[in-house]
Amino acid sequence: MAPVRWLHFLLSLVALLPVSRAQSCWRNTTCSGPRGTAFPGPWESNIYAPSSRTVSPRRILSIASPNKTADYEESIPYALHMDEAMVVFDFGVEVGGIVTVNYTTTGPGAIGMAFSEAKNWIGQSSDSSNGAFKGPDGALYANFTKAGHGAFVMPDHKLRGGFRYMTVFLISDGPTCVHIENISLEIAFQPTWSNLRAYQGYFNSSDKLLNRIWYSGAYTLQTNAVPVDTGRQVPMVEEGWANNGTLGPGDTILVDGAKRDRAVWPGDMGIAAPSVFVSTGDLESVKNALQVMYNTQASNGAFDESGPPLSQKNSDTYHMWSMVGTFNYVLFTNDTEFLLKNWDKYQKAMDFVYGKVDNSSGLLNVTGTRDWARWQQGFNNTQAQMILYHTLKTGSRLAKWAEDTKALSGRWEHQAEDLRRAINEHCWDEEYGAFKDNATETSLHPQDANSMALLYGVVGKDRADRISETLTQNWTPIGAVAPELPENISPFISSFEVQGHLNARQPERALDLIRRSWGWYLRNPNGTESTVIEGYLRNGTFGYRSDRGYMYDESYVSHAHGWSAGPTSALTNYILGLTVTSPVGLTWKIAPQFGDLKSAEGGFMTSLGKFSVSWEKKLEHYTLHFVVPQGTRGNLTLPYIRSGEEPSITIDGNDIYRGVYYIDDTATVTVSGGGAHKVVVR
Ligand SMILES: *[C@@H]1O[C@H](CO)[C@@H](O)[C@H](O)[C@H]1NC(C)=O
Ligand SMILES: *[C@@H]1O[C@H](CO)[C@@H](O)[C@H](O)[C@H]1NC(C)=O
Ligand SMILES: *[C@@H]1O[C@H](CO)[C@@H](O)[C@H](O)[C@H]1NC(C)=O
Ligand SMILES: *[C@@H]1O[C@H](CO)[C@@H](O)[C@H](O)[C@H]1NC(C)=O
Ligand SMILES: *[C@@H]1O[C@H](CO)[C@@H](O)[C@H](O)[C@H]1NC(C)=O
Ligand SMILES: *[C@@H]1O[C@H](CO)[C@@H](O)[C@H](O)[C@H]1NC(C)=O
Ligand SMILES: *[C@@H]1O[C@H](CO)[C@@H](O)[C@H](O)[C@H]1NC(C)=O
Ligand SMILES: *[C@@H]1O[C@H](CO)[C@@H](O)[C@H](O)[C@H]1NC(C)=O
Ligand SMILES: *[C@@H]1O[C@H](CO)[C@@H](O)[C@H](O)[C@H]1NC(C)=O
Ligand SMILES: *[C@@H]1O[C@H](CO)[C@@H](O)[C@H](O)[C@H]1NC(C)=O
Ligand SMILES: *[C@@H]1O[C@H](CO)[C@@H](O)[C@H](O)[C@H]1NC(C)=O
Ligand SMILES: *[C@@H]1O[C@H](CO)[C@@H](O)[C@H](O)[C@H]1NC(C)=O
């Protein structure tokens, strides 16, 4: 090659370098996450995740000083002289990780740094997270003795897992002035992804608020997928905070919340894991969270209520959630290696919990009484019966996938049927039209058990219609108050309620509740405007559980809690109507419900390939397009366009009238072979 051509060649290599260089992941973790989004399109503008793993504040929220009392807004650049007492930086969305502050000082002193998820707790002390309940977390300090440049890097164990606002304040006896030159945050969550926006699922509809809610659930789950050595320290530190606990195997693990507890909680995953599947697709974090529960199982078969180092014990419901989680994970991944590795332990777990069923009533006698936050738990509590029913039903399917030869599948299916009869006989309140809190005379009709009865199919159509109706008696303009946790609104339990109404084919009710509850939070200027909250009170304050007046201060509430991400899976699975019914979607179901929407589209990935659906509803007909991988098979369940009137259906232009199954204003057709198809229903 001639020298000039060599030069061109070398230059072209240099020009390529920045493009081909992969963005790095968190610290030393392998970048095993996806590189790019599976479904590129305009809906990606709804993704809250930043495009870089290193971010800076988007704006200054306010400056408070003795001489300048009024707050004002100022845009970037945010460099400022610290003769003012305190400046509040706003990252614009929930973030979390390691903060670096570069500054220049004119003399000795210190700057303090404090963090908050909600606007309400902005100040010189961070919101509360350490779990010792001795007050809020306080501040970090960068101390300096003389004039010059400085850089403060947050120590690893002081990683702040979830915040939107960062307050910086000056402490000095003299006339020191500090110039804040730069603030940057190295994001720690979703540690194996180089591109935080590389979602493997999407959702888009004619309702902008619902779209934002879907993405706020997805982003919350990203902030809850954390490096395995950044769990909350146990025993809890009483001053400040420490996030250096070891959580489990692998590089990334799904915890309950970004700020706290930063621990694995299998019950939370009952909502979180299905929403991960339809959105980010990060099932690696789900797998590691489940594996740690198997790794710490007690010799009698009991799972802990939470993962290490927290390792709470004594919860029959959360024990069962680890089992349900196993089913969900294998359904989404077909990871039979994981299933077989843990199968003996799963059976032991089933024996442990089923051994508590009382022969005379046929009901579970709950003796491990810790639970999600409901006041009462124990004896023949109805919610626990619903979870056991679902555990047995899903266990029966898992036994088949594990190719179990001990006839477990049939046995568990039988036991589920016996339990369903017992629940309907002992726990139902015919006069009220819903389940009681347990099999005694009580006037409490809980949100959790009744929502799960709808979702898990414990009742026939008549009872389902009544439950769906009576559940609305708990509603307020900003969400459903849970009778079993009075005064509190739980988007966790409401996530079951939303799916319950949808399973009972009440889409208007489900969308109404999503808009009231999640819509209220996402539009609340005091919140993160990007994530889903752990819980709140009937009067619209954020103090979930603080009304009980013992340990919780209002700022302890987590504003990025995956257990509240239910609308994300609900909108995909029921409104769009797309679900997998056997591992990775070898069989699937498409059963849209329109509610008041004009259109919806979305999809997700499995190891078989892409699944996607889009529908558009007009007055006299609707059109539905779908794409499913080759070699798969599924049912289309199509709502009637006019109630009571069998519709005419075409698929790819062909009239469909044979093999259609009509029930409850829906027509079901089986479609084999995969590919892209167009359905018109009039
Ligand atoms: C990366 O790993 C090496 C070896 O395990 C360790 O010495 C180093 O501190 C790690 N770096 C970071 C930034 O964690
Ligand atoms: C406030 O204003 C007074 C009078 O102008 C001035 O002497 C003082 O230094 C100012 N204080 C601060 C903190 O800027
Ligand atoms: C801030 O300080 C860090 C740590 O010393 C340094 O790596 C970084 O380059 C500095 N950034 C700026 C913008 O000065
Ligand atoms: C740094 O400054 C803060 C605030 O004045 C003070 O409480 C703390 O003790 C100082 N830390 C050190 C190591 O000097
Ligand atoms: C985490 O940090 C705390 C506070 O510095 C310390 O007491 C504890 O031993 C550390 N824990 C681990 C697991 O490193
Ligand atoms: C699921 O995994 C099993 C065992 O690895 C395999 O035989 C089967 O083909 C897989 N199913 C699908 C749908 O990928
Ligand atoms: C349920 O468990 C409690 C606590 O162990 C026990 O006192 C009670 O007798 C049990 N009830 C039944 C029906 O087995
Ligand atoms: C039944 O439920 C009610 C309402 O939660 C509760 O007050 C009562 O203690 C429960 N009874 C038993 C035996 O669990
Ligand atoms: C439910 O548990 C309570 C408390 O142990 C008991 O009094 C009641 O008889 C039980 N109900 C049934 C149907 O077993
Ligand atoms: C936000 O918080 C402020 C201060 O606590 C309060 O006055 C205001 O009503 C809150 N806004 C909403 C929408 O809750
Ligand atoms: C909201 O309700 C809680 C208890 O239910 C109460 O402690 C709190 O003061 C109330 N806050 C407002 C602003 O009404
Ligand atoms: C379609 O629905 C029918 C009736 O519920 C069921 O028996 C069949 O297995 C379903 N087919 C597929 C492919 O899921």
UniProtKB/TrEMBL annotation:
Signal peptide: 1-22
Any single GO BP term: carbohydrate metabolic process
Any one GO molecular function term: catalytic activity
Matching InterPro entries: 6-hairpin_glycosidase_sf (IPR008928), 6hp_glycosidase-like_sf (IPR012341), Bac_rhamnosid6H (IPR035396), Bac_rhamnosid_C (IPR035398)
Alphabetically ordered keywords of this record: Signal
Residues in Alpha-L-rhamnosidase six-hairpin glycosidase domain copies: 253-473
Every Alpha-L-rhamnosidase C-terminal domain range: 588-643
The UniProt record lists the keyword Signal: yes
Protein known as: Alpha,alpha-trehalase
Source organism (scientific name): Aspergillus nanangensis
Lineage: Eukaryota, Fungi, Dikarya, Ascomycota, Pezizomycotina
